[in-house]
Amino acid sequence: MSDSTNITMKDIARDLGVSVATVSRALKDSPRISAEKREEIKKYAQEHNFYPNILAESLRKSKVQPMKIIGVIVPQLAHFYFSSILSGIEEEASSHGYRLMVAQSKENYENEVKICRAFSESKVCGIIVSQAKNTTKYDHFQTLLEKGVPLVFYDRISTGVNASRVVVDDYMGAFTAVTHLINIGCKRIAYYGTSLTMEIAKNRYNGYRDALLKNGMHPDEQLIRNCDNRADAELITPDVMQLPQPPDAFFAVNDDTAIGILYSCKRLGFRVPEDVSICGFTNGQRAIACDPMLTTVEQRGVRVGEEAASILIDQVEGRLPKNRVERRVVRTRLILRGTTR
Amino acid sequence: MSDSTNITMKDIARDLGVSVATVSRALKDSPRISAEKREEIKKYAQEHNFYPNILAESLRKSKVQPMKIIGVIVPQLAHFYFSSILSGIEEEASSHGYRLMVAQSKENYENEVKICRAFSESKVCGIIVSQAKNTTKYDHFQTLLEKGVPLVFYDRISTGVNASRVVVDDYMGAFTAVTHLINIGCKRIAYYGTSLTMEIAKNRYNGYRDALLKNGMHPDEQLIRNCDNRADAELITPDVMQLPQPPDAFFAVNDDTAIGILYSCKRLGFRVPEDVSICGFTNGQRAIACDPMLTTVEQRGVRVGEEAASILIDQVEGRLPKNRVERRVVRTRLILRGTTR
């Protein structure tokens, strides 16, 4: 935690008209201070959320710069988009002299809670986090905010907590992609996406729906599928392509799913993009490995990471008020490649 | 740094027959200790490489567990193989109650030196590192070892430093893959790899060469190319395929290069695998996104990361002697897919 967010021993000493040494001794229960005085000081410290920052204190004493460490929680490390974001965070942080403590929740709420606690004990100056898929309670984040630890969400933001956040313009990314599919002549555009409990899923779906509506088309329940990975996409696409009125285009919530659709269509004998156009979302390494290469919405992970770190550092260093909720949106880019006409 | 790797103030006090407080005061140049005594204690501390570990000391005093932080240096974070390794390190470390401080060298020697210094100042208990591509001096690593900071290399090991290391069996991986190509009837097998300054490049090349020699074939200079990325592979493959005696198979030093060869061959009208077989090295996300899917040598990054963290933690906690050089080899696996007959 940065010095600016906490009351210090110096503050307590000044407020109570005693020396810093007295405060320090009282908080350590030293018999050199009267029991009465000790109680008074400890009560005051508690009421003002004094957080005995041993580390910062020892470093201050030794005249070494206080450690500037940012905690980063990543749902999965071996994941292209998250590792791009981590790279952006690292670049921005290291250029400002901050170091990163990194942990992965492995998409698990309990791990996330433990990491928050560990980071808080390690006196990180702030935390940058994307929540686990199964996180639906937010006490652990709320506790950090109450302790004055700046918190910045990226990608999967928490609607249950009022904290700063960086997302990509999921709605506009999807809207632009689907509008492009309509402009090149696609009439029946399927949507493969995740359940709508996550903000990003909701926004991408809404972008898809609004692009259809704006162009006089109507979402067809038969073409809207709950699917967010390649294995499932390969499983369900044969059925979707055997509908009486099969789709002539797919918009998928990520590249992995789009590639499942691509291979499924090719195996079924459909030509991509002549018979079927496909658009993904991510623009990871897979998007240029597949054949034809994938048209997709680029999520710009590095930029997302840089923005998240930048907000956090501004709050830690006082350029942004610590209780200000920043909402930043990184623009996506539609990358046209071989899977669309 | 762990307590076990350094002489402590307690040790000095015992050895000189004075109190710990006296040692502490002498090292802080307190006038409460005679100039003579101060000199004696400081000289002894210096001779025994006493490293005033302010952090550990303050934590010891406050009876909080000393911070268990491992520094990890990654050449690039947005990179499938390295992020897999980081994931393995994180899993092993967190299961033992260690936290990770992560920094990327961005393949740059100067950054690597700065990170080593920063990690050392942060009193990490050890460092896990894969060196930058352009690192050819090793003083920064040597300094850490001399300070007693355990060091474990992964993937790109440093031949200039005698430290523990975890690599995959690059030689056997290549040997097995090329032997497979020979067994399925390939007669002219090309090799695309990096220059031989890096250990891994040397070992993979030797595996290729020895598989040929063992089967009565001879490396053909025309088929051995200095190429380790897709763009270069797409550039040079047309020439290679127009040789009077073109190759009927390729072994590439990574998946990215293999995919460049694949698309180049397809564009030139060759059928994969009927006319040309291709084998990569990595087994990243790209390997199953390309069409046909890539036969490749799996590098098992998560396992490499787990082994590296395990060695480091064993050294920190005294289960392995701190000056013992551990060399662990993670076995690769040949994954057969559509690019080989």
From TrEMBL, chains A, B:
Signal peptide: none annotated. SMART domains: HTH_LACI. One of its GO terms (molecular function) is DNA-binding transcription factor activity. Pfam families: LacI, Peripla_BP_3. CDD domains: HTH_LacI, PBP1_LacI_sugar_binding-like. Gene3D superfamilies: 3.40.50.2300, lambda repressor-like DNA-binding domains. It comes from the Bacteria. PROSITE patterns: HTH_LACI_2. Coiled coil: none annotated. This is Transcriptional regulator, LacI family. It comes from Prevotella jejuni.
